[in-house]
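Predicting holo structure, phenylalanine bound.
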Amino acid sequence: MSSNRGSFSGKIGFVLAAAGSAVGLGNIWRFPYLAAKYGGGIFLLVYVALSVTFGFSLMVAEIAIGRKSQVSAIGAFGALNKRFSFLGIMASVVPIIILPYYSVIGGWVMKYLAGFTVGQASEMAQSDYFGNYIGSVGEPLLWFAMFMAITAVIVLFGVEKGIEKVSKVMMPVLVVLILGIAIYTICTMDGAWEGVAYYILPDFSNFSIMTVVAAMGQLFYSMSLAMGIMITFGSYMKKDISIAKSATQIEIFDTGIAFLAGLMIIPAVFAFSGGDESALGQGPGLMFVTLPKVFDSMPGGTIIGTAFFFMVFLAALTSAISLMETIVAMFIDKLNVNRKISCLIVLGICVLIGIPSSLGYSLWSEVTVLGMQLLDFFDFASNSLLMPIVALITCIFAGYVLKPKTLVEEIELSGKFNQKAMFSVVIRYVAPICILLILASSVLSAFGVISI
Ligand code: PHE
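Done. Tokens:
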């Protein structure tokens, strides 16, 4: 089934590739707009608390399941227990839903990169630029196609070599750029400190169930959990590399970059909106509307903006590659086709789902599902429905069928596992109960039964 399974070049190789998958648009585009919308500091607090308990445990469980079974996501559960084969299939559906709309947003990033490169910074800094752009039909589709094509070409040539190398250079540069932009905004712009306070200091009056629902969905998304990706990565991982340490490192990378991205964007929103709080609730457009204004106001903004969008493009690309690789590997395993055909099938699916996601902002803006635009709906369906369901069943599988002991043994093959006790409690009790509550509230609110 998995005869020519490659493996990563070493410890740092695995961490880099997994971090390359985890760090992406989720950190830079999605996290800041959710934090802005769902309460600032309180969102941050909930997110970090969930990430060190729940996110960590789930990540460790997935990597261990992958390494133990030695097969990619779709087969891993079945290989360990026949009755759970269905879970592999469910987990594999998630990246199929995410990749197409992820590529649509990857296309937006490319458009901004191209615009900054040819010196259109001040045009792109206009408030209505972004809205007009995604409201047009042809161009967003073109950039979407381009992003997809680049991803596909890389996946066609095989996985690990590329991601490791790109991540190694990209991450530090990205961190330096984000930090620099954040410091510039905070130190030079009026009103930015209020944004820092809103983002860092938890205000419990801003808390709602939605804070937790959004934070948990974001956690899955950002850490690439509940969709088989870490299982696939785990299956490539050598037995002598510490799962617990690697997971901690990936988590620090991932949460750290998300935190910094919020610090870069939220104070800027305050500075440019002149205290108008409704600017915080903009949603998916937040980064694309706010950042060009920052760059436009900065000395050397065109160059910094170009460099920034280039790094975001790389981050998006390494994530998209991991999404596509997971799906391609699954088709190779299951349909017995070669890599080329498998890539073509995935491209076909992406076109089918990606085009409506893009057109949802223009031609088909009238079409909504459960009151959401198409791209938002795909985002909701994966992050707030399917992923919690997969995560819930994964916890049941790991906690009650395999038993934490089995996974702990796998994890301890490669060194100490200090968080062993927390891991078992979270996987068996805390996580399933939390996920269930959250799932129930997001479903009930989507169908209008409760409002949260
Ligand atoms: N974790 C990636 C991000 O934060 C997105 C992603 C989701 C990548 C799922 C792979 C799988 O952008």
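Residues 21-22, 24-27, 95, 98, 221-222, 224, 227, 229, 319, 322-323 surround phenylalanine (CB under 6 Å).
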